[in-house]
Amino acid sequence: MTLKVDRKKVAKGALAGLLALVAAFLIALALLWPRCRAGVCPSVDSLLAYQPPQASEVLDRDGRLLARLAPEQRIVVPITSIPRKVAGAFLSVEDRRFYQHHGIDWRRVGGAFWRNLKSLRLREGSSTLTMQLSRNVFPDQIGPPHSLRRKLGELVLAREIEAKLPKDRILELYLNQIYLGNGLYGVEAAARGYFGKSVRDLTPAQAALLASLPKAPTSYDPRRFPDAAHKRRDLVLTLMAQEGYLTPAELKKAQREKIKLVPLEEPQGAPWFIAAVRRELHDRLGPEADRLGLRVRTGLDMKLQRSAEKELVQQISAVEKRSKKTCGKDPDECLEGLFVAVDPATGDVRALVGGRDYSLSEFDRVTQARRQAGSAFKPIVWTAALQAGIPLTTLLGDSTADYQPADRISLPVGPLNLREALRVSSNRAAVALGERVGVSAVIEEARILGLTTPIGEYPSTVLGAAAVEPLELVLAYAAFANGGDRIEPRFIDHVESAAGLVLWQAPVTRSAALTPGVAYMMTSLLSDVVDRGTGMAARREVPADLPLFGKTGTTNDAQDVWFVGATPELVGAVWLGYDQPRSLGKSASGGRLAAPVFGRVLRSYYMLRPKPLPWLQPPELEVRDVDLASGGLAIVGCPPDRVARELFLPGTAPQDCPEHHGGVVGLMDKVGRWLGSH
Hints:
5-stranded mixed beta sheet; Beta-lactamase; alpha+beta; 20 strands
């Protein structure tokens, strides 16, 4: 009797406990049932037109990867482009009853619950592909990770997704969305990243390796843990055979296949250039362009870029070593530099180094800095003089103005003609020429050549006292190298959609700035600078037959040192200085510090590259023998050591040498020239 009573009490107690447990579950379910987080509800309807985000890629001139603009390395492909065995590999291991359930596999849920209960550990999951898709597409809206609220959210969303989307569309979204390790999202990007081929060309063993990764992309990473990856792959292959995706013979063949991976495609760098590309891309297509899967084609030359980065950093280190000043944690205390090179014909940026170390300072000194140009500005003064019809034989003495700057080097006593004055970078001659041309005309010439920064109308302007943007100064020199045209820079050549359609083509923007004759005369003058003037350090570094011109620049107290130069296919600059201007040392100059860097970069660039043909002289230019001492045309009787050939624009040749112009000798020379012309 007592035993029967006890049994009834136990039964009643068990029933009460079960009811309490059910009630507690219902209360917990009511409290934890998925709600909108932060007022944002997951929209299953948005999946109808959903496209997984793809990182846009920036490519160099040869199509090699420079950078990805977003973390998701993904290439979206339609389900029709994914072979049955690839999809089957994922279905076999992740959700073998995918085509039978409606978002929740209750058989799998029950089995997983029972096995976890027996082991007293959470060892087995029960997420279907649809549930995995819901947490991958709406990670921030269905609850915190590893929470019951999140799991309930997955269940609810999975049922909604299945009600609104066909199975093949769900599978397509999943196979394009899933993370497969090493920054690779989706099967197409993973196929290329691990095997260097499209998903269409994967072997069953390769497909199985990809399908082994969703469970634990890090733990089964075939690069870091090849043994674990191999075992997991073989398990997937076995499951594929059980599900009918492989025959026994195919299974044995796939299990014997070795795992062969291609090297990771690492971004090449050029961080300041990439930042400039990103800014232009956002301006034209909006900030969302980073995740549209675009292919941004540029004109950057990675060989030139790498050489420029190396040579600039080495020179900075050498200067710091000599001055015994090293770079600390304060960027303002670090010596900085820049290198930029542009194609003078198209404006394509071929190399851009905005500083010594991007991690130290993201400031782009090529496009964002404003620095005094020093004597690197003088070619603009000479251009203004030529445009005004002043011949190169004009002798420049001291200026009559109060402003009388000193020259950095000892120069011959007496006046210099324009060619010699630019060759030795005479400050006195530059001021005299500026006085003759007019500072306002010099400023106007700078504007014509593309300089947009403020330039004051002062005598010191002709010596480069105004701050300029380095890239604009380089583009001003481009007009000398390309025959007289002002050119706009091109960071982007064109932008392609993920499907390969051209969305935007950057135009080549050129406009006439100089006559071809003036442009050629400037290349001739600046070639003398590197052949036998202040820029000889650049010439010494390159082959003797490489056409090259350039100009050095050094500001007061050597706070900025420059070299701006060009070949027929590249125009560029090197600059060194501190962001907070201060002297680089008494012996510092553009010729000593900047010019050698430019030369060494070109030497590397042209080591395995054919050298360009020299600039062609326009037919309208006149070539005459001149007397260097007087600046007049040489005639019979002029000492041979004072005679040289010079270029003239039509109608600007000077009169005969006054010293030998009269008398019998002068008469004979005039008669001879008249007879020769008739």
